[in-house]
Design brief:
The complex is a heterodimer of chains A (126) and B (183). With 126 residues, chain A is an alpha/beta fold. Chain A has helices spanning 35-49, 68-86, 102-114, and strands at 4-6, 14-18, 23-30, 56-66, 90-98, 119-124. The termini of chain A are far apart. Classes of the chains: A alpha/beta (126), B alpha+beta (183).
């Protein structure tokens, strides 16, 4: 599978997906008006990866801002990862938030309560 | 007599205004507004927690406008830009205020008002549950809106949504929403 490597912009995050390393990374800002356009290829990639994932997939989500349009797409990403986890492959989601950003921590906890995959909340010191 | 948008806009422009705009609400406009407000908040040396909240709430307010603006009232195409809306971001004592305004067809009022009234009755925990429910159960619209914007704003600000519908003509009202972020 071809990896995905996208540079971040003012409204969209940087993305690194590698099937060879089992690494899924989304970082930066995710505030496009229409997030489906941006996330559809990522969700499709994960659907393909699901067919033959590595034994262990590490997911790093480090967002500075995300809008409610993105929040649904991020849930779609997590649902694909949940399916991989259900298939007896290890998946671990690392959710990063800055130390004073309670809203971002809460957002991570919202996903954690919906998705049956182990989450680790990682505080980043300012 | 119909509601005078210009007078209201002038009224909003009192106090310490970070940004005021009236005209077409486009994707580029949103980018410009976000850049401007972000750099002003930095100039204020505002605490990062407040800065992030204002930014987040501003994104949702603008994108709500962007997704939900109704067509202009008939025969007002000369007077107003296409996709017309107003936006004022200001700093008052102890809080930031983000006010937006847009035309709304009378037939769309009831649904919106019902939603706002419901949100305004909910506690922080209720809002969290509502947010999670909508997140998990509703599909995104074609335009990319997800019905989460107002819930998210209420949740992040912890304040009630302050709104009014002002009669514009027989078919339209002007909808004004003000949200407050305590600093």
């Amino acid at each position: 599978m071809e990896p995905i490597s996208i540079e971040g912009t003012a409204k969209t995050p940087s993305v690194q997906f590698s099937s060879k390393e089992g690494i899924i990374e989304i970082k930066g800002r995710s505030i496009p008006e229409n997030s489906v356009e941006f996330y559809k290829p990522l969700v499709d990639w994960l659907e393909q990866y699901k067919a033959s994932p590595l034994d262990k997939t590490k997911v790093n989500i480090q967002l500075e801002y995300f809008n409610t349009s993105s929040s649904k797409c991020i849930l779609d990403v997590f649902k694909k990862l949940e399916a991989i986890h259900k298939g007896k492959n290890e998946v671990e989601i690392y959710w990063y938030y800055e130390e004073d950003d309670e809203d971002m921590l809460e957002a991570g906890e919202d996903y954690e309560s919906i998705i049956r995959v182990p989450f680790k909340m990682i505080e980043i010191a300012d | 007599m119909s509601f005078n948008i210009q007078d209201y806009y002038s009224e909003l422009n009192e106090g310490e205004v970070l940004l005021a705009y009236k005209g077409s609400i486009s994707s580029d406009l949103i980018n410009n507004v976000l850049d401007t407000v972000e750099s002003k908040l930095q100039d204020f040396n505002e605490h990062s927690k407040v800065r992030k909240k204002v930014y987040n709430v501003l994104v949702e307010s603008l994108q709500n406008l962007y997704h939900h603006i109704d067509d202009l009232p008939k025969n007002y195409e000369e007077e107003f830009d296409e996709r017309f809306g107003i936006l004022v971001v200001s700093k008052e004592t102890g809080r930031y205020r983000i006010s937006t305004g847009n035309f709304i067809k009378n037939t769309h009022i009831a649904k919106l008002e019902e939603k706002i009234k419901k949100i305004n009755t909910l506690s922080k925990d209720d809002l969290k549950e509502m947010y999670k429910y909508i997140l998990n159960h509703q599909k995104l619209s074609e335009k990319g809106g997800g019905g989460l914007g107002l819930v998210d704003i209420a949740r992040k600000t912890g304040n009630k949504l302050d709104y009014r519908f002002q009669v514009f003509n027989k078919e339209y009202n002007f909808f004004i929403l003000s949200v407050y972020i305590s600093d």
